[in-house]
Specification:
With 544 residues, the chain is α/β, with parallel strands linked by helices. Helix content is 53%, strand content 13%. The chain contains 21 helices and 15 strands. The strands form four sheets. Strands 7-6-5-11-12 form a five-stranded parallel β-sheet. Strand 3 and strand 4 form a beta hairpin. The chain is flat, with a radius of gyration of 28 Å.
Length: 544
């Protein structure tokens, strides 16, 4: 797009008006690019926009990069690039708008002592893909994770675990490895229900929650360490199955609590106010809500821990930007935390950003980890595996992960996802497996003949239409990286595959007089599809 903007700016150089041309991709019949720059210039120049458009079009036609130009309506300029310029645009790498920027992003944050559910998978996939986008735009990206290893949820699980063990730690050892996640899910659910329905149990769980900070009871500590270890083995395994890149560092709430509570206490009364012994931040003044960061007993709460986490990240990476991916329900909370952080720690101003997701909905409705009634990631993998088998496919993890990632990523960030297992694994519609199959199909065509070296091919209209669609890729990636919007890549790749399918249905490739030219197009299409899938974290198989 920058190349076209510069071309137009050169053509309007004599007007003496500082205007950046607005350039767009119109429908194919209206050119490769279109601009309304004459309308932008009309008012400052006090001239008819169509007259300006005719002048600019005449200058554009005289350049080697432009094949033809037309003026439409009140002054819109539609232009078609020369074949060589179009190919150059199709083969260029996306711009590195974030080069020199350091970014830290949380790419997973499930808590130990609970099962990893589908909502966690959604956040992990989105965080990992945004990390890919940031990397593609030139940023130095550090992937990290953050997990709650202390607090109320630990107390609920420990209540059930202590009852299950009943003083005999060997009872945990006998649980098979592949049952750890389901077992932990059950323990948390039982503790959560007890906390809600039994006042005596509630008091016990509150005490067990406090013990998660101290670990001063030997049996408690032993159970805690075993089950925390189980949880992280399971989390790491499931995140890898999702197709995420490995993290560099794992942060824990126990660490951030130690860092955050002193920050809160050191900023009273300038930032935090005392209320009945607790330390409160008046988030209502910052588009959030008033929230306690430290209890009347001096114990840290979520806000204090998040302040501590921000500080730990800053000490480790000194990042220009720090991204946190969470459920939209936490959006207002993070407005308050970020406002508090910027008042306590001015060096963090403008650094932390919360990316809010929608919720994942299945036929059972919204999922909630607070009750323990959740749909586990492993369950979803099993469901998708069965659906793939039912249609005669092989349920390998790369295909399942591709289906899962695409189903989440094709929805605009912040929107809810209604997850349909059958749709997600279909090779007929807008799905990950469809695009994986499209890539494998293109590679199978290329395997039938050798690619010839063609320096300056001349394209017929059908070939040119495919090339024009391929040439959109760099701009799509640049815009997706700017907006942090993976869904636009999904939409583009699906459209690209459809354009190729229409081309291939009507145009023979192998054993055609234009075989060499068309094979180079198939190769460029396959490479573009593979690059786009890679940004989405989806494997692009040569065979499927």
């Amino acid at each position: 797009m920058e190349m076209i903007q510069k071309l137009i700016q050169d053509a309007m150089g004599d007007y003496g008006v500082d205007v950046t041309p607005v350039v767009s991709r119109p429908e194919p019949q209206f050119g490769d690019y279109a601009t309304n720059v004459s309308l932008q210039l009309s008012k400052p120049l006090g001239r008819n926009p169509r007259e300006i458009a005719e002048e600019i079009a005449g200058k554009l036609e005289s350049t080697d990069m432009v094949k033809s130009v037309e003026v439409a309506g009140p002054g819109f300029i539609n232009l078609w690039l020369s074949d060589s310029a179009l190919r150059a645009e199709a083969t260029r790498m996306p711009g590195l708008s974030r080069r020199g920027q350091t970014v830290v992003i949380e790419t997973n944050n499930p808590n130990p002592f609970k099962a990893m559910h589908i909502g966690h998978a959604f956040n992990a996939i989105l965080g990992d893909t945004i990390a890919n986008l940031l990397t593609a735009s030139g940023a130095t990206v550090h992937r990290v994770s953050y997990h709650g290893d202390v607090g109320a949820h630990v107390g609920k699980s420990m209540y059930s675990l202590l009852s299950y063990v009943d003083g005999d730690i060997s009872k945990l050892v006998t649980i098979p490895d592949d049952e750890h996640n389901t077992f932990m899910s059950r323990m948390y659910a039982e503790g959560s229900n007890a906390y809600k329905n039994d006042e005596t149990a509630k008091a016990d769980i509150d005490e067990l929650s406090k013990q998660s900070f101290t670990l001063d009871d030997p049996l408690y500590k032993q159970i805690y360490e075993i089950c925390k270890g189980w949880s992280f083995v399971e989390i790491d395994s499931l995140v890898a199955r999702l197709g995420n890149q490995p993290i560099e560092k794992r942060y824990l709430e126990s660490q951030s609590d130690e860092k955050g509570v002193p920050i809160v206490k050191a900023n009273v009364p300038d930032v935090f106010q005392e209320s009945n012994g607790a330390l409160i931040f008046e988030g209502s003044k910052h588009g959030s809500f008033d929230n306690a960061y430290v209890t009347s007993r001096g114990l840290g709460l979520y806000g204090a821990r998040d302040l501590g986490l921000m500080t730990l990240k800053h000490e480790d990476y000194h990042a220009d930007k720090s991204y946190i991916v969470t459920d939209a329900a936490q959006g207002d909370y993070f407005k308050g935390v970020i406002a508090a952080a910027e008042q306590c720690l001015p060096e963090l101003t403008g650094v932390t950003h919360n990316i809010s997701t929608g919720t994942v909905k299945l036929s059972t409705g919204k999922m909630s980890s607070r009750t323990g009634d959740v749909l586990e990631v492993s369950w979803l993998f099993d469901q998708m595996s069965e659906a793939i088998k039912a249609r005669g496919g092989e349920p390998i993890d790369e295909v399942i992960a591709g289906a899962l990632r695409y189903q989440f990523l094709k929805v605009r960030v912040g929107s809810d996802v209604v997850f349909d297992v059958e749709d997600s694994v279909s090779i007929q519609g807008n799905s990950g497996p469809y695009l994986q199959y499209a890539h494998a199909r293109a590679r199978s065509i290329l395997a039938k003949a050798e690619l010839a070296d063609i320096e300056l091919p001349q394209y017929d209209p059908a070939e040119r239409a495919l090339l024009a669609k391929i040439s959109e890729y760099p701009n799509i990636i640049e815009r997706a990286a700017e907006d942090l919007a993976p869904h636009s890549i999904c939409s583009y790749l699906y459209e690209l595959a459809q354009v190729f399918n229409r081309f291939y249905e009507k145009n023979r490739v192998i054993d055609d007089p234009r075989q060499d030219i068309r094979l180079t197009l198939v190769a460029l299409y396959a490479d573009t599809l593979a690059r786009g899938l890679t940004v989405l974290g989806i494997h692009a198989p040569d065979k499927l």
